[in-house]
Amino acid sequence: MKLQEFRSKEILARYELPLLPGEIATTAAGAREAAERLGVPVVVKAQVLAGGRGKAGGVKLAATPDEAAARAAEILALRIAGGAVHTLLVTPAVDIAHEYYLGLVLDRSAKAVTIIASAEGGIEIEEVARTNPAAVLRHALHPLDGLQPHDVQAVTEFLAIPDHHRSTFAAIVEGLTAAFFGCDAELAEINPLATTGDGRLLVLDAKIVVDDSALPRHPDIEAMRDLAEEEPAEIAAREAGISFIKLEGTIGCMVNGAGLAMTTMDLVKLAGGEPANFLDIGGGARHERVAAAFRIILSDPNVKAVLINIFGGITRGDEVAHGIVEARAALDRQVPMVVRIVGTNADEAALILEEADLQTAYSLDEAAELAVAAAEGGGAT
Ligand code: GDP
Ligand code: MN
Q1: What gap in Å lies between CA 291 and CA 328, rounded to an integer?
Q2: Of ligand 1's atoms, which has the minimum distance to the CA of residue 5?
């Protein structure tokens, strides 16, 4: 679960990181009042989950309360990465001397929580890593010992933190690490961590992503969920008990089991296509869940064909087949579908699908090839 900047800062405040005060506003008038209370100049910032917000015009300076209202109105009218802006953070503007990037991430290839740091902060770290990889430090933490003084020292030296900021910087690294582990994060980043003209070191922007599987033990973070900011398809999937991740391709995939879903996506790629999503309808999926999965997959206008791959174990093939036929009849958008159902009650399933005139396949390779051909206009129904 991604947290907006102001929520991420709320968490970092618990770990005593140096933050500026801020107020939330949802209207231009609200932003004006916030600027009056906080004192000008202020920065007005869109609270969206998408990256690249600054570049999209979602972060603006204002020298007076009236200007704060005008900038707020402009930002509220923006669409950032396709989404509307509902919430603004108003916070005092500072005179930035230097911007650093400091983040912790669960790096699966290093099998370790890794500190990422760069003295070229402010811009996206992916861009720095691409254009100037030597400017980015990746420093893995020991999986059992966690953050040690020598880790802090390595990061401090890489960034050439000025002497008078070193103790504050050490406390920031410690606090960010404690926050990362404390909320079971996948990512906790500060960008920029800025030195100011008046000699302060401050967290100006922050982003935390919490591991979804850990949310049951963080009800306070779950309560920070902002449905207005999340993808409708992801909300629908969570409510239906479906694991869903949207991707960029054209082949919608409906699969039971995470491993089989990954394999299905690989085979779509091998057949020359690109999956539009990862979707695991889970074990014992009943037809309501199949119907929900269809709605979620087809809500993506890029989807040109759907590949359904079900291995019946606890899940009964005929139940899923009924679900597919019923749900398909209720859809307002029809796309070609290829169905592969094997395992428990596969024969019954095949009959149901045949009667409904659905294209079926026995092997997974064949199913993937048919789906890719169908997406390219090659004729499956
Ligand atoms: P992002 O684009 O979504 O990462 O938004 P940020 O909050 O990181 O702001 C983007 C950039 O705006 C920063 O890197 C700064 O260059 C600039 N910025 C943000 N806050 C301030 C501020 O208080 N003063 C000044 N001068 N610039 C700021
Ligand atoms: Mn930023």
Answers
A1: 8
A2: 7
